[in-house]
Design a protein that fits this description.
There is one protein chain. With 497 residues, this protein is mainly α. It has one domain (2-496). It is built from 23 helices and 2 strands. A two-stranded antiparallel ribbon has the order 1-2. Helix 2 (17-35) crosses helix 17 (356-379). The longest helix is centred in the N-terminal third of the chain and has 35 residues, at 106-140. The chain starts with a helix and ends with a helix.
Length: 497
């Protein structure tokens, strides 16, 4: 009952006229920030942080939280409409979102993304409200062995039950791991794989640069090829009836939504993990558990629902260690944490008792922001569909400019723009040769997380791999991962004998 009382008090704070206005403005701004390639929630929150000093601390974090939520919703828009991930968290949405748009189902894809985002955000906020302290303690039990085993499990789902050509899948993963290793060695600090001391490689390969190149540029080249110089217009229609029908059809995806929500929330809690690995892992698990894994990547609605529910749940989960432990769960929450310190609020275990109005006002605002972001997103669907109706001869230059801007913005380095163009050609060739792109994307995201976890684990155990089996949680996850990896061999043996 205490939680309900505190939550209702929080709602009275969140629905104050000023705070409600900040939620609406934050969700709207965040939606368009998320839809712009190269920006995303990190840049949006960082850019608008100085503006929050004009309002009280509670209103400030409510405003930034609303931007965060809006950006998580908005990332799917450009992924579906243009094939360009608006943010790293929306990369997995591109796998099936763009094919659906090309099939004239853009409205269905957008409704699916908005609905799944709402469900993921709602599940995340409810879990946040009910289980904040115990979940924070569980997250702390995850050391380096557990994090590495979780990363290995994500790779195993693509290898074992992905439905793709296994050798091509493994090649794609290895390529992604190589790209993820570019830059400075995490232990020695020595440069590696920098291709003859090219300065631009010292900071590694920016994931968003790779994602925009491999999907945005590659998609544009592929479309130019299949259009063969003809004026190409994507068939897209929209009406209130179609939107309502699409909303009703979402009932068929509730299992995938819940799976993505719970998985994303848990991954989001883990420090340094965040929404991007959560969305990619959810996509892999959805494909793994599907009766038709071969339909993924070709316009399966569950391929949108899984990552979108996961990344929104993960964004909420990432706020849990920020508030309860003072440990940011994602880059965006790191900026939020900095803002809290500036406002004179000390995050940690005592934040719920020392600043109850602030904490519960913020938590309650997340419920409101989630609903408002959904309504704004659905309201703008006709405008998004209008963009898709433009002839490709007009749309292609727009896509190219957005890709260049998106490649330049994260690091302000032309090196990344040239790299993005190279990745675009590589992605185009991989598509022509029927190599799956999703495993490579997964590897470049999880590789930089798995490597330090592996090396730290081996340092703890003096080089012994037994640490992954002697720790209960890590041992169970590793065994499941190994079984999934062995499954393709078992299938081949069954066919032969």
């Amino acid at each position: 009952m205490d939680i309900l009382t505190l939550l209702f008090n929080g709602f009275s704070i969140a629905f104050e006229p000023l705070n409600l206005m900040l939620i609406i403005i934050g969700c709207t701004v965040g939606l368009f920030i998320g839809a712009m390639p190269g920006l995303g929630s990190v840049n949006g929150v960082a850019i608008l942080l100085p503006m929050t000093f004009l309002v009280p601390p509670t209103g400030a974090i409510i405003f930034l939280g609303a931007i965060y939520y809006g950006a998580m919703y908005g990332g799917a828009i450009s992924s579906i409409m243009l094939g360009i991930p608006g943010a790293s968290t929306a990369v997995a949405t591109t796998f099936d979102g763009r094919p659906m748009a090309m099939q004239g189902k853009a409205d269905k894809a957008l409704v699916a993304a908005a609905t799944a985002s709402f469900v993921g955000g709602s599940v995340g906020v409810v879990l946040f409200t009910l289980f904040a302290p115990p979940l924070a303690e569980v997250a702390l039990t995850f050391g380096s062995p557990e994090i590495f085993s979780l990363m290995l499990l994500a790779f195993a789902t693509f290898i074992g039950l992905g439905g793709d050509d296994i050798p091509k899948t493994m090649f794609s993963i290895f390529i992604g791991l190589v790209f993820g290793a570019v830059g400075l060695d995490i232990v020695s600090g020595e440069p590696r794989l920098i291709f003859g001391d090219i300065p631009g490689f010292f900071h590694g390969i920016n994931f968003l640069v790779l994602a925009i190149g491999i999907y945005g540029i590659a998609e544009m080249l592929w479309t130019i090829e299949i259009s063969k110089g003809n004026a190409m217009i994507t068939q897209a229609t929209i009406s209130t009836r179609r939107i309502l029908n699409n909303l009703m059809e979402m009932k068929q995806t509730w299992k995938t939504m819940l799976m993505g929500s719970f998985l994303g929330y848990f991954v989001g809690i883990l420090p340094a993990a965040g929404a991007t690995p959560g969305s990619l892992m959810a996509y892999g698990f959805a494909k793994t558990s599907s009766n038709e894994p071969e339909t993924y990547g070709k316009g399966n609605i569950n391929g949108i629902v899984a990552p979108e529910s996961a990344n929104n749940a993960a964004s909420t989960g990432a706020m849990l260690p920020m508030l309860t432990l003072g440990i940011p769960g994602s880059p965006t929450t790191a900026i939020l944490l900095g803002g809290m310190v500036i406002w004179g609020l000390e995050p940690g275990p005592l934040v719920f008792t020392d600043y109850p109005d602030f904490v519960w006002g913020f938590i309650s605002s997340l419920y409101a922001a989630n609903l408002i972001a959904l309504l704004i997103n659905i309201a703008f669907i006709p405008a998004f569909i209008w963009v898709l109706k433009m002839p490709f001869t007009i749309l292609a230059p727009v896509i190219f400019i957005l890709c260049v801007v998106g490649g330049f913005v994260p690091t302000m380095d032309m090196h990344d723009v040239w790299l993005m163009l190279i990745f675009g050609v590589v992605g185009y060739l991989m598509r022509k040769l029927d190599y799956p792109l999703a495993p490579a994307v997964l590897a470049i995201v999880l590789g930089p997380l798995a490597e330090p976890a592996l090396r730290q684990s081996l340092l703890i155990s003096s080089g012994s791999f037994s640490i992954f089996f002697t720790r209960p949680i890590a041992g169970v996850i590793i065994i499941i991962a190994l079984i999934l990896m062995i499954l393709p061999v078992i299938k081949i043996l069954k066919k032969r004998f």
